[in-house]
Amino acid sequence: MTDSVKQEHQKELFGQPIGLYILFLTEMWERFSYYGMRALLVLYMTTATIGDDRGAGLGWTSKEALALYGWYTMLVYVMSIPGGMIADKLIGQKKAVLWGAIVLCIGHGVLVLTDIWAFYTGLGLVILGVGLLKPNISTMVGGLYREGDIRRDKGFSIFYIGINLGSLLATLIVGLVVAEWGWHAGFGLAGIVMVLGLINYLYGQKYLKHVGNFEPSTGGENEISYGQLYGKLPSSPVQLTVTLILLALSAYGWYTLGWGYGLLFAFLTAITALLMMIYKELDTQIYKDRFLVLLLSFIMVIIFWGAFEQAGGLMNLYTETNTNRDLFGWEVPTVMFQSLNAGFIIIFATIIAGYWAKRKLKGKEASSLFKMALGIIIMGFGFLFMVFAVMEFEKSGASSMIWLVLAYLFHTIGELCISPVALSFITKLAPVKYASLMMGVYFAATGLGNKVAGIVGESASDFGEYAIFLGILVFTVVVGLLFIVILKPLKRLTHGAEDNERTMNEEAEGFELADN
Ligand code: GLN
């Protein structure tokens, strides 16, 4: 097809639909605002109210700050479930992304104000905005390609690089802006770039005509609404019993841990009930097994992010307080260490994807489940360097920056083995009509991982950093190995979903080596 007869939305750039670059840039600016603000959050909360040259902070203890950080980073992703549902059932992904972007602009704008109400309101709006935008923009990327389109995998890796470009720019620039003009200028910058993201998204609509549109349910005989699924719960004894037990536990959680946990557990109970009913209603054993193995893989996702997300919390504080950040007479701002992860992703993303593709071609083990388990182990090893850092700190009063660099390097290689792999695994295994919901559940699993990270990080004030870093190292390596031990039966549950990828990978590799 020549360009002259192509519609705007069919035009290509470097072999990819132009829509991909629109989504790439929108997500890049969104991630800039998210990670820029995230990098400041714990430091802002723990800075004294009399302030330093960055202005007044909130004067909270590390424990209090890490607790809020854990709730915040969890809710941001847990809201992906309602975000996905709203898109599926009410407005479509394209409008959900638009509303998400608008709410994010307002949220970051409110954070520029110094009052405490503005702080909480701003965080709340950012949580809603990300919940609407993040899962749906990922699904829209998938929507740019027809089924079996060879460009899809590469499109997703380009998109993942966009995510990390945003994160890299944010952590490089926001640190400098805060050092120069103070905390609220940093928050304001996050707001400005989100406006850029919104403008870019609006401008790019002509390239996105065919994706993310709301498609009302056809009402066909296989069509079943969430309401109908819940309606069948009372006549499903096993599912009902599990739901009631979980509800009782939620009530107990409310009573013992407070309303926050109570509400969270109740919400998760409702989602678990829905997932159980979906499982029950799936047509064939193949669909059921694939659904199950997908959910089992989400256990790895929770554990991975639970350890990995120490980055913005405990490791961030450790960098600020225990690390010698002197680089040839210049003190590297703490926030800048958050750039290492994104920088390493941009460097290693294609190398690691290429490595796995080659391995697969040679007929060696390269299943998604294997990569994910290995990802946990590699990331866990990163904590060995944090153990060394604490040992050095205890001996000499400050630890070297090199430990952090090595820790983040291993964390990133682990992330590249699990995170993009999991996204593609979802698109391979999720039943088509529940694909958005499963994307939402996946992001919620990463959110729960964030919460676990907060809880683990908080407990450092009781157990000490050495015990925490060593504990994470041992736990993650053991869990990763355990998944490798049960790999065969787990793979059986996928019913060969990845078996026909040989040619896809061959072609994809040709793409990597020969294109452009
Ligand atoms: N770093 C990735 C992103 O920002 C992964 C986040 C996640 O899955 N929790 O998109």
Give the % helix.
over 70%
End-to-end gap: 19 Å
Low-pLDDT windows of residues: 1-5, 502-516
Sketch the topology as an H/E string, one letter per element.
Answer: EEHHHHHHHHHHHEEHHHHHHHH
CATH evolutionary superfamily: MFS general substrate transporter like domains
- The beta-strand count equals 4
Task: Write up this protein.
Strand 3 and strand 4 form a beta hairpin. The protein has one domain (18-213, 227-499): Growth Hormone, Chain: A (Up-down Bundle), CATH 1.20.1250. The radius of gyration is 23 Å and the shape is globular. Helix content is 76%, strand content 2%. Helix 5 packs antiparallel against helix 6 (183-203). Mean pLDDT is 85; it is low at 1-5 and 502-516. The chain is mainly alpha-helical. It has 19 helices and 4 strands. Strands 1-2 form a two-stranded antiparallel ribbon. Strands 3-4 form a two-stranded antiparallel sheet. It has helices at 18-46, 62-78, 80-111, 116-143, 151-181, 183-203, 226-231, 237-257, 259-281, 285-308, 314-322, 339-361, 368-396, 401-429, 435-458, 460-463, 465-485, 487-493, 501-514, and strands at 12-13, 16-17, 326-327, 330-331. The structure holds glutamine.
